[in-house]
């Protein structure tokens, strides 16, 4: 695994972009942007190398800097961060990894951002049946030290067909099942940043393994992939 270190110039550029978020300024600085985009992509590539040593990763996707402003009140044309995701390979391996570089607000995330309605229903039915193993995995001390508590959007009350007084309703009403770890600017510029991100993603694997097992079997434990 290469040892790319992100330079502070990347963060300085993003701060300038935030103050000059218009096409004229961006066009004048596009060559500079491309150089920093390449630097970040190389950093993400090193993280991909580390992930592939312990997981099956299909691809790295680096998101475009251009914003979709069609349905947004904010009409600024450019994102003021770099972001990328890592997709796991195959139907048996569920969950995804994400990383964002933004001055003062960088983070990594892992989990299930937008499960389809079938997957969401299957997760909820599992939690309705028994959430003991789920709680044990996400409550393990070394896991919580890195990732903290589960987060994501959730309903204010029980989903249709579920008991609002159920003992696991705090989990059942979730629409997303995400973990987030924040990094300071000093941390992302550190030589240890790649290692820390890679180790954090490795630490999420017990959660991914459990969720993959849930999403590829029925409530009786019979595989849905055969």
How much beta, percentage-wise? 5-15%
Low-pLDDT ranges: none
Structural class: alpha+beta
Element string (H = helix, E = strand): HHHEEEEHHHHEHHH
Q: Termini separation (Å)?
A: 36 Å
How many domains make up the 3D coordinates?
1
Shape: globular
Q: Order of strands in the sheet with the most strands?
A: 1-2-3-4-5
Under CATH, the topology can be stated as BirA Bifunctional Protein, domain 2
Major beta sheet, specifics?
5 strands, antiparallel
Beta-strand segment tally: 5
Helix content: 40-55%
Number of helices: 10
Q: Return the CATH class.
A: Alpha Beta
Chain-averaged pLDDT: 95
Named CATH architecture? 2-Layer Sandwich
Instruction: Tell me the radius of gyration.
Output: 20 Å
